[in-house]
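call fold(seq) -> tokens
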Amino acid sequence: MKLIIWKEIAENIISYRNLIATALCIVLFLSSALIMTRDYQNRQTNYSLRDAMGKTRTGLRPKIARSPTPLSVLARGLDDNMGRLVFIWWSQPRKEVGADVVDPGQRNPLFSLFDAPDFVYIIKITMSILALFFAFDSICGEKERGTLRMMLASGGSSRSGIILGKWLGGYFSFLICLLPAVLLVLIWLAVHPAMNMKGEDWGRICLIVLFSIVYISIFFLLGLLVSTLTHRGSTSLLIILLLWVVWVIGSPNLGVLVAESLSPIPESLAFMAEKSAIGQRGFDSQMDSFEAYWQADDRYIAKVNQQADLVQKLTRLSPMASYTYLSTALARTGAAESQRYKCAVIDWDRDMRRRADLDMREYNKQMEDYNAGRLSSPPKRPKGAYEWAEEVPFDYRQMTLTNALGTVWVDIFLLTGFNVALLMAAYLSFLRYDVR
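ret:
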């Protein structure tokens, strides 16, 4: 097996394929780092200017926005969504869930037309295809050249040694093309003054790189498996491209469509009609009406979360979806972080209103005592919800690394499982492969 490994590495290192792949990786990853860093700087500058002008602080009609995370340079995810500037109005409970979006947060209009070319996007699309090109003729190519029969006839290599050697040697050769570009990106993040990465950030980055390697390995093994099922390189190439389209593009989109059918969300107009009907009821106090509105909000949010959970379960049939959920969770830009942030905004708003309502109830009671002569002086006017917001400002704390990993342990298991299953399938297929 060692001879096969060294043979694969030696042949690939000096080949034009490796040189072209290395140059392509360096150009893609450095271009991505430049584009995404500039995008992050623009969003950070916009946030800082809004904060300096008091537009991200609480007070009269509280305004809330979350600072962009530096790791969005690697996995942009939903960071732009969480960075939107929102206003909370006195009539907010009667409106849709959350607060009014005043600033959409998007600074580069091209990102609305195309996916952000971040590190994770390049890995899950470009590098997965490139890994297939490295592996599609690993076995059938040797058969076409007549060297596969010679390997087995010489007695120096067994079938298990050949398949494991092809996998380890070939994939290590591919990583030789990839890792220099990744190293340059890490150096860029370390030296760029706008990044300001901290200790935990580097731990998250290392995990993103690690799981990127695990993800790419899936497609290298897929190419190896198809190579053991075919006898011509051209046939193998056509099959793996078809499988890639179905598994990476078709499966996640189909999962979304199925989830929307199985767990639909009420239309916006229907939801607003439900809240309008609530407004027609008679309530003893404004807070009672707010609580009724909030119950409708909670039912709507529960249905949205139910559909989102179903989407994640169905799309995880594709390793691309699992890798996306995992990498964005590590970068603090994932779905769980976004849901947690939205819930924090809603809970904070409701807490301010409840505090103000308790103060008002106490004030009314004291006014009754004052009017009845049981108090010598009138009570002080209570704080409103926005005044309470000045004393208890919105403070969102991001998920810890442990909590983030806890939300994506299924994805870690699936990426590992895909690797094991494909390796076993390739091994068993090669045991029955006709080398003649």
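DSSP finds 17 helices and three strands in the chain.
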